[in-house]
Structures are given as structure tokens and as C-alpha cells.
Amino acid sequence: MPLCDYFSAADDQGAVAVLQTGGGPGQADLDVVFLENIDPVVAIARLEAIMTGCSFEEAGERPRSGELLSDPERDGAFVVSVTDTLTAALASATQDDLVRFAEPWSMTDELQQIGISVEVAAGVLEALAGLAQRAQASDRRLYCWWAL
């Protein structure tokens, strides 16, 4: 099961530097939400579409949507970016919004395949929203460290 740790960093260079720590963003003393199997490309684009009211295709084409920042030839972990649009949507979402978004997100194929319930999706959204709020407050961006 892939580890998909979402974290904030000041910039792309700082985000990619977590690959040098060997243990990911948790070992790099960064603000991190430890998740498993929440794909930073498809599942996160589906979440962005739900939260912003755009199509999945539009969410996937936005700047920084699942953009691979690390060397594609590198073995092991890699780092991808999360859009500023999703970061802003997460940071501004109320608790009621997160509960409302959890149901349709949990019904997507990606989350259904890994058995994510509405309650678990709501918890993931709450954790990601907190991360996004802290990132915005400190002028940082969101990223995902993905490793097997």
C-alpha cells in the first residue's frame, strides 16, 4: 500500500529536498498529514472537482495538479505538487463543507476501490483542511510524498 504523505513546504525545491531525508517529510521536520493510498493525482483531482464545482478534467489540467517535481528516473519515493486552488478550497472550507464534500468524494471509484467510508473521508478532509490552513498562514504550498 503506497504511503501518500501530504505536507507543506516553502517552495518546490524545499519539497523535493525531503527525498534526501530517507524517511519523507516526517523526518524533515515539516508539517505533514500521514495518509495511505490517497493518490495525489486522480483522487486529489476528483476532490478538487467536488470542492470547486469544476469537472475532473479541468481540475486535472490546472497548474500544479499532480505535477511530478522530482526526477522521474529516481527509484523509490517521489514528490508531486497540489494545486493552489485546492489548497485555497481546503483552507476556506467550514466543518459543514468538509462533511458535505466527504460523501461524494468517498463515492468516487478511487476511494471505493480502497474501501474509504464517508467517515474516513471526512477525517481525511479535516486533516488536509488543517494542513492547508497552516500552509496558507505561513505562505507555503502543499505537496505529496509518495512511496511504496
Report on this model:
The chain is globular. It has a 4-stranded antiparallel beta sheet. It has helices spanning 12-16, 42-52, 56-61, 84-92, 95-106, 109-113, 118-137, and strands spanning 3-9, 32-33, 78-81, 141-147. The chain has 148 residues and is of the alpha+beta class.
Structure described in brief:
This protein is α+β, with helices and mostly antiparallel strands and 148 residues long.
Number of helical runs? 7
Mean of all residue-level pLDDT scores: 96
- Major β-sheet annotation: 4 strands, antiparallel
Query: Which stretches are poorly predicted, pLDDT < 50 over at least 5 residues?
Result: none
Strand content: 5-15%
Q: Could you state the order of secondary-structure elements as H and E? A: EHEHHEHHHHE
- Kindly, what is the distance between the CA atoms of the first and last residues, rounded to a whole number of angstroms? 6 Å
Judging from the principal axes of the Cα atoms, what is the shape?
A: globular
Query: Could you say which structural class the secondary elements and strand pairing correspond to?
Result: alpha+beta
Strand order of the largest sheet: 2-1-4-3
**Strand count:** 4
Bin the helical content: 40-55%
Radius of gyration: 14 Å
